[in-house]
Amino acid sequence: MAREMPGYFFFFGGYEFTKSLMIKHGGQSEELGLLKTTIAGGIGGICLWTSIFPFDVVKSRIQIQSSKESMNKVLITILRQEGIKGLYNGLTPTLLRTFPSTGALFVAYEYSKVYMTKTLQD
Hints:
- α1 (4-22) packs antiparallel against α2.
- By secondary structure, the chain is mainly α.
- It is built from four helices and no strands.
- The chain has one domain (4-121).
- Solcar repeats lie at residues 32-115.
- Belongs to the mitochondrial carrier (TC 2.A.29) family.
- Keywords: Membrane, Mitochondrion, Repeat, Transmembrane, Transmembrane helix, Transport.
């Protein structure tokens, strides 16, 4: 819950906010085109991972170590031993991976939505 709910808030919020910045005044989101939709999706993915990464690091440490310790205790241990940087260890490759993948995800979503809407109207 601590990871997924805020993460998806930032995922869709980042996507929609970025789209709103790129839409011409009075325009529709369907008019953005492939490149701008990809960029908005990529930024949404970056917002997601940046917001949840500390929780993901804690979850991964618990899984790797087969730990029975609480999430809070593992979090405090990481902070004491590695500092805040320890909670973001590995973020750069994750962001490099997420930008094209979430960009493609939102392109597929938007174009599928347009296609299905047109198909159902015909």
